[in-house]
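>> received
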Amino acid sequence: MQADEVSRMFSIISRRYDFLNHLMSFGLDAYWRKRLVSLIKPKPGDLILDVASGTGDVAIELARQFKNTKITGVDFSNPMLQIAKKKVAILGKSENIKFQFGDALNLPFKDNKFEAATMAFGIRNVENCQKGIKEMKRVVKKGGLVLILEFSRPNNFITPFYWLYLKLVIPTLGGIFSKKQAYLYLSSSIWQFINTVNIADDLKELGFIHVKKIPLTLGVVSIYIGEKAL
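>> returned
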């Protein structure tokens, strides 16, 4: 699916997106985001970028854990960003978090601007995974971290149940509460991604050091971390 088609799809499902995320992950999505954010150790005043920010949950978690940081969220779906801005305003975090429209493959920021960059469940929707990671690397300062939270392939007893959940449950729930076609795409994109892409290898190939993969919830999702070499 082309980038503009993915953007339109997320715009269409934006209203029910948060609800379905919580429902389909059995509420674990909040725990996964907390783990992602807890791996960053910013200093007061540090700038952190959240790519594919969507409705802003990672940016909000960053602001909760690090009250004196400045967070910028970028996404290519304006309806998603409008929801994110409303959530941030309600929480009184507008001074800490700013959102803007932008493409993960062409981030609208100068080189070496941020201390860290995060992306949660967005890299599989980027047309060129390595280019997306390379862009995150470009805008992060030397010694800074790039952290990616994404679905991964569990190599244990849960694998067949995971496949059935992706193929049957996600599209069914999507059809009941939102747009079935969109969730058919999301489920197929997850399965294709976890069987064809190795984010840890991509990070190493792009010159990151101290690369780590941290599996969560029996390997259903993983956090990938790379440090930009000095």
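>> The CA atoms of residues 171 and 183 lie 5 Å apart.
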